[in-house]
Amino acid sequence: MGTLKKTTYLAALALATALSACTPPSYSQTDSAAESEIVATNGLTMVNGLSMTNGLSGNGLSGNGLSGNGLSGNGLVMNPLTTALTSSTFLMNSAAGRTTVSYMIKCALPAGHSVTKTDSTGASYTFAGGIGVAPEWETSSCGGDCQRWISACMLAHVNTAGIHVPIWIVGQASGLGWGQSTSYPNQEGTFFGNIFTLSNVGKVDAYYCQGPGFDKSVVDGRIGATQVGAPYRDMFADGYCATGYNCVDSDAKTGNVPDGYKACTMGDGAMTAWNQLVTVWRENKAYNSSGTVIAGQTADGATVGNDFETSTNSWTSTATLSSSSDRAQTGSKSLKIVYTGGAGTVRVAGPATLSLAAGKRARLYLYLDAASAVSSIGTWVKKTNGTETKNTESVTDHLKGSWNQFGISVPSSSTGSQVGVDLTTTGAFTAYIDAVTW
Q1: Quick check: 160 pLDDT over 90?
Q2: Contact by Cβ (8 Å): 312, 335
Q3: Which of 115, 130, 203, 377 has the most CB atoms around its CB within 10 Å?
């Protein structure tokens, strides 16, 4: 685990995160703290939202205050931040440019540090630090490692839809640290590159690869959603940050699951090996365009029927069921399934009191431990006439040590009264169900 970070802004920052702040890092004349809570388990809860209209644009990172040659214009990285940002610097003379600067300094400097600069009209702006992946830039030039750490951090904050939602970010930079949070169950992806310069093939090195949860709890403007003009590319054939093939797991693990990645190989320029990476985990909450949580919905807009926050919600099984805080997809608890028997099929069933319309699709999230003996999952719906429809899927098509979503549709000829899953196993296992929606 990385070193625990401390900050005197903890109370205020926790409030900012809880309110899902929907503005970029402050660059006003008043003092402001970074939009983050530095959490005891390491990692950072950050508010993302560096949108296409607020700074990063297109494959070449052009327009909206950024030059076509990346961010290195006017000797920016050759000097300390205190002298590199001048009133004539292009970044200081537009709202989009100043937003880019705000994220750049938020990523580079730790909380409690700030830089105050003026634009060409003499107006003064203060940019607050927050994460501290490259603190050396405050007093010296920004070399290759500095540029790559800031790039990974800024790319991790991009939201092409301009929606500001909390994300959990980890990495081996001293300002980050490793760790996982039960409130952020979906590993979205890992970001890396260098947005300060063009590569030898005339492109900006801005990359990402998919985490196992990239298509779970999809958030507008993030990986897994439809993105227009995203500044990063994924060049892996399968898209995933595949362990042992193109990426290296973090040494730190939580529940035997790596917290992220410490190295990846990708690129079409001379630079292909990257060791400055930021891995992002995200929530399963729905947000409106103002960044406000929509109660009772998952990120994909589905209505939550069972969340197991206070009970088992009348689910039954031959296995032992409980409302557990071990991990969760939504809220802070899930349905924990502990089976201690031998080979067979374990049925886990919801209450038989539903009235699901014909064609309605029910979904649930299922988590299997990395060493689980479960071999297949059968998601089923019981029709009101007593017959069942079931979809059976092999575990090899899904990822252990991660939440996976399963679904079943009520046949068009009937209504549904009950949903559940059958877990075929070769022995004892522990699994979790959460965020049952219909």
Answers
A1: no
A2: yes
A3: 130
∠ CA 146-150-152, nearest 5°, is: 120
Burial track 200-236 (b if 16+ CB lie within 10 A, e otherwise): eeebbbbbbbbbbbbbbbbbbbbbbbebeebbbbbeb
With pLDDT > 70 as the criterion, what percentage of the chain qualifies? Answer: 82
Residue 242 burial (C-beta neighbours within 10 Å; 0-12, 13-18, 19+): middle
State the residue range of the domain holding 92.
10-294
Query: What's the pLDDT at 48?
Result: 57
Q: Check which CATH number belongs to the domain holding 408 and give it.
A: 2.60.120.260
Of 390, 418, 423, give the one whose Cα is nearest residue 404: 423
Predicted structure pTM score = 0.73
Q: How far is CA 129 from the centre of its chain?
A: 21
Number of domains in the chain: 2
Residue count (the chain): 438
Among 294, 314, 341, where does a domain finish?
294
